[in-house]
What does this fold into?
Amino acid sequence: MSNLEEDVRESLQATFEADELPRNAYYGDGSVISDDELDQVRKAFQKATVLFPWQHGDVLLLGNMFVAHGRTPYTGDRKILGAMADPKAR
It folds into this structure.
């Protein structure tokens, strides 16, 4: 919720109970994560971000279990392929 514009945030909070919000973050035990703590997480993600200029023919291959994936908007034509597997299967 702390990523949303204030008017959108207020509208959602007026419409839904706190535990029914369509977008929110909690600790594993269900306790609230403060906006300040979420800001720290966002700053850590920003600090760890690796940016590079895309060129025609580039491929991004990653393991979702190990990294946060490309969140910077991309413009232009692209082909997206995805696969899912049990990461513990051998």
